[in-house]
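SAMPLE LOG
Freezer: B-3
Tube label: C17
Construct: single chain, 205 aa
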Amino acid sequence: MANFITLFRTFLGLTVVLVLYYQQASATMALYWVLFGLTAVVILLDGVDGYVARRFNEESQAGAVIDIIGDRIVEQIYWIAYLAVGWVPLWIPLVVIVRGVAVDGLRSIALEKGLTAFGSSTMMKSRLGVLLVSSRFSRWTYAVVKGVAFGFLILAHMPDGEASFLQVTKTVAYTSVYVTVFFCVVRGLPVVFESRRFFSSASSS
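STRUCTURE (predicted):
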């Protein structure tokens, strides 16, 4: 069930960005509200799949990997779509994609050693690493800020919206965008730092 939820939210996110891209020129205010609401569902389901996995004892290494893959796809397609419609600069999706590829590559090395990104067998050993990367507080905070950025970017570019409403949503949206990117990089650094031991052990063997 948890994996199904992950696949569903990935498909839903892809649907949202495709509709946004191809219907942007002729989209109505109502459609923008629908896309905003569906984006909120996509973000909320990120927590639901984990809860379902724990509740029904479906936690596994494969499930954790599928969850991360779903997160990466959703995150990157939104940033790429927002770049395509001119809402964010090129450097933002570049930073997110490079960070994601680097972190997931290092996590794949950890997975070979039986260590996962999150959970009881997390590769994070330091308290700071656990707090920034694998703790529920960190993951939920990042998801909320990212969700606000994705959702409010849609509202901020709503056609025929009131000027005061658009100004407020735009301020919230772009503040959240920069906080999200900063948090994305900061959460990736402990993974890079703690992965050094894998290369040290490989070179000494």
